[in-house]
Structures are given as structure tokens and as C-alpha cells.
């Protein structure tokens, strides 16, 4: 008998170089092998308009509030075109970043007023929150060394240590504020050990999501 699951929304967060992208494919495969139909997406981006906004956001200098507004504009389109329709079809959505990233980067890193951020969140998705958020957490030096070893850096990745310290602290503050949905992954572990931990956490969510019909 095929297993049916209630739809779930999973997000991946962490400072640049923490290892988030490395594990998204693993999570998608793990869930699909267990019968989950899912959509894998990312922010900023995830739609045709969102990908154009991503290009601007990652390469153009702009006012901090413009940056926050464009992140939420991309998110609004992403929810309307991708996230909400998939959940309504009964599918799962996994997204490489969501609103916690705006709190961490524009709020923590750039210092935007968190009250304004909360207002944007309440405006753009008053009733939608991830069911599960994996926060890939590493010391800044580890993340920086991984980035330097691998790729050309975009606008955010070129920021200094202070920026990432504040970004990481805001992520950890959000995790403490919403312990029900956040799972902090110690990303100094090996990739194999992280995958074991992810599989255990996904098994719990799968068990809680079995639909009886
Ligand atoms: N646990 C880990 N141990 C060692 N290297 C890792 C680990 N996780 C990721 N990496 C490497 O670090 C680099 C950045 O990882 P990536 O997943 O792209 O980070 P992010 O998406 O969080 O910015 C990649 O080269 C990746 O292979
Ligand atoms: C979603 C989001 C991302 N960002 C930033 C974080 C990242 O530095 C950047 C792009 O994210 P990411 O997809 O992690 O970049 P990469 O493909 O290089 O791993 O956008 C914000 O500043 N605010 C946001 O709300």
C-alpha cells in the first residue's frame, strides 16, 4: 500500500558556507524514496520573477530596506506561484532559505529594525510558517574557509566577519524563539554524520505526517 502524508514545508538556513546546499539533494532523495511528492525551491528566487530579483539582490548595492523589500517581494511571488499551490495539492515543499534568512541577514547582519521585519512577515505570510527548519550552524572561520576553497563570492559572501557573527546570532536567536520547528545541525560534523542526523529527524517528521484515509 502506498503511504500518504500530510503536506509539509521544510526550510534550510545557515550562514554562507555552512553546508546547506550540500544537504538539500540528500533530503529530497530521502523523502522521495519514502513516497513523498515534493517541490524543491530556493529564495531569493524560485519563480521567473524571483530569479530576476535574485540576480539584482546578489550583485547590486542598494539601500538596506530596498534589499529587505525585494527579498519579501520575491517571497510573495514564491508563495503565490510555488509554495501555496504545492501544499494545496498535498505535496511537500523544501526551500533553500525563507523568512528566517531575512531576519538573520537584513535584521542581524545589516541591522534593520526587527519590528519592520516582523511587519513584513505578518503582511506577506500571516498564516504560513515552515513545519521544520534545519539551521546549519558552524563557526564563522569554518564557513569562510569552505567558501574560500570553492567559489567566487557574491555580494553577501563578501561581507566581513562582524556581519556573519551578527547573522549567525540572529539565526540562533530565532531558533531559541521557535524551538518547535528549528533543528540546529552542528555542521562541523562530517557530511556522513550530518546525513545520519538529518535522516533521524526526517523519520520523526514522516511518522508525524502519515495521513489516514
Ligand atoms: N560537513 C562538511 N564538512 C566538510 N565540508 C563541507 C561540509 N558541508 C559542506 N562542505 C563543503 O563546504 C562548501 C560549502 O558548502 P555549501 O553546501 O555550498 O554551503 P552553503 O550552501 O551553506 O553556502 C562546499 O564545498 C561543500 O562541499
Ligand atoms: C532568502 C534570503 C537570502 N539572503 C541572502 C543569503 C545568501 O547570501 C544569498 C543567497 O543565498 P544562497 O542561495 O544561500 O546562496 P548560494 O547559492 O550562493 O549558496 O541571499 C538574504 O540576505 N535575505 C533573505 O531573505
From TrEMBL:
Domain Thymidylate kinase-like: 12-195
InterPro entries linked to this entry: P-loop_NTPase, Thymidylate_kin-like_dom, Thymidylate_kinase
One cellular-component annotation, GO: cytosol
CDD domains referenced in this protein's UniProt entry, alphabetically: TMPK
Pfam families tied to this protein: Thymidylate_kin
Enzyme class: transferase
One MF term in the entry's GO annotations: dTMP kinase activity
The keyword Transferase is annotated on this UniProt entry: yes
Listed EC numbers: 2.7.4.9
UniProt binding sites for ATP: 14-21
Catalytic activity, reaction form: dTMP + ATP = dTDP + ADP
Gene Ontology biological process: dTDP biosynthetic process; dTTP biosynthetic process; dUDP biosynthetic process
Record field: transmembrane: none
Gene3D superfamilies to which the protein is assigned, alphabetical: P-loop containing nucleotide triphosphate hydrolases
Signal peptide interval: none
Alphabetized HAMAP family for the sequence: Thymidylate_kinase
Function: Phosphorylation of dTMP to form dTDP in both de novo and salvage pathways of dTTP synthesis.
Listed NCBIfam families: DTMP_kinase (TIGR00041)
Family classification: Belongs to the thymidylate kinase family.
Protein name: Thymidylate kinase
Protein's organism: Janthinobacterium violaceinigrum
Organism classification: Bacteria, Pseudomonadati, Pseudomonadota, Betaproteobacteria, Burkholderiales
Amino acid at each position: 500500500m502506498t503511504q500518504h502524508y500530510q503536506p509539509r514545508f521544510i526550510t534550510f538556513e545557515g550562514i554562507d558556507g555552512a553546508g546547506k546546499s550540500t544537504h538539500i539533494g540528500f533530503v529530497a532523495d530521502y523523502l522521495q524514496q519514502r513516497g513523498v511528492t515534493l517541490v524543491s525551491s530556493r529564495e531569493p528566487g524560485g519563480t521567473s520573477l524571483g530569479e530576476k530579483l535574485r540576480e539584482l539582490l546578489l550583485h547590486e548595492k542598494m539601500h538596506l530596506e530596498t534589499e529587505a523589500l525585494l527579498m519579501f517581494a520575491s517571497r510573495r511571488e514564491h508563495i503565490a506561484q510555488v509554495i501555496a499551490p504545492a501544499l494545496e495539492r498535498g505535496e511537500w515543499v523544501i526551500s533553500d532559505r525563507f523568512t528566517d534568512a531575512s531576519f538573520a541577514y537584513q535584521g542581524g547582519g545589516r541591522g534593520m529594525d526587527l519590528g519592520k521585519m516582523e511587519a513584513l512577515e505578518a503582511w506577506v505570510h500571516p498564516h504560513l510558517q515552515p513545519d521544520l527548519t534545519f539551521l546549519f550552524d558552524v563557526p564563522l572561520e569554518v564557513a569562510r574557509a569552505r567558501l574560500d576553497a570553492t567559489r567566487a563570492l557574491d555580494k553577501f559572501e563578501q561581507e566581513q566577519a562582524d556581519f556573519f557573527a551578527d547573522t549567525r546570532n540572529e539565526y540562533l536567536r530565532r531558533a531559541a524563539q521557535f524551538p518547535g520547528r528549528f533543528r540546529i545541525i552542528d555542521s562541523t560534523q562530517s557530511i556522513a554524520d550530518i546525513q545520519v542526523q538529518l535522516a533521524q529527524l526526517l523519520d520523526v517528521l514522516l511518522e508525524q505526517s502519515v495521513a489516514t484515509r
